[in-house]
Design the sequence.
């Protein structure tokens, strides 16, 4: 079975500061990795995904994540956040060959303050 | 192009009553998912359809939950009877194919409150 741990439930940060949202996963088989964002009263939107190849993945809105197989991590980073980045962020995994069944972490609420 | 459409957005019902949620996926997407998101948690898969076939319903509480996707397009999720613990946001998602190489698109969800 697979599991996802998001180490921080809430992350407050000032505007234009860098941010890192941490995600660790557990799996005995190969997985795909994802970050989704959920704005208030909205559905989930894909930020980025790692399927294979380069371990540094760039996504929308200036976010990037790095897959570290030895540490089973997939941390999300942004060098300079905006007020509009305030949202909840979910890390998710899908077992390769599982035909799309996503397993989500509990989420991290990012609050960007002016 | 319209995204995944869900209705209603909000529903408040008394316990033991039935409730139904509707989802219209993106046109041409043959894979449809229903997820449940409890407060403070990530979404959890309830059921996955490939066209009209439910290919993974292992997490669906079948004593009270049912789902259908009769023509392989829109889908309905039903709870009968509802319990207090069913209060959650029910999310529908769709993908072009079953492989997660394709992006999953989520609807805005239906927030259910059981009182």
Sequence:
């Amino acid at each position: 079975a697979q599991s996802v741990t998001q180490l921080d439930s809430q992350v407050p940060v000032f505007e234009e500061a860098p941010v890192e949202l941490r995600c660790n996963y557990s799996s005995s088989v190969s997985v795909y990795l994802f970050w989704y964002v959920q704005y208030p009263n909205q559905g989930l939107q894909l930020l980025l995904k790692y399927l294979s190849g380069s371990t540094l993945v760039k996504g929308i809105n200036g976010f990037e994540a790095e897959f570290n197989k030895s540490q089973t991590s997939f941390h999300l980073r942004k060098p300079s956040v905006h007020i509009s980045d305030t949202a909840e962020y979910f890390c998710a995994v899908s077992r390769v060959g599982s035909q799309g069944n996503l397993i989500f972490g509990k989420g991290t609420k990012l609050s960007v303050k002016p | 192009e319209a995204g995944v459409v869900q209705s209603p957005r909000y529903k408040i019902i008394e316990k033991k009553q039935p409730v139904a949620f509707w989802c219209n996926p993106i046109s041409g997407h043959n894979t449809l998912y229903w997820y449940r998101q409890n407060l403070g948690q990530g979404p959890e898969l309830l059921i996955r359809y490939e066209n009209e076939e439910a290919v993974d319903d292992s997490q669906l509480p079948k004593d009270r939950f049912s789902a259908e996707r009769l023509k392989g397009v829109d889908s309905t999720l039903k709870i009968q009877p509802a319990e207090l613990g069913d209060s959650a946001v029910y999310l529908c998602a769709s993908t072009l194919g079953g492989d997660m190489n394709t992006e999953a698109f989520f609807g805005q969800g239906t927030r259910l409150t059981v009182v």
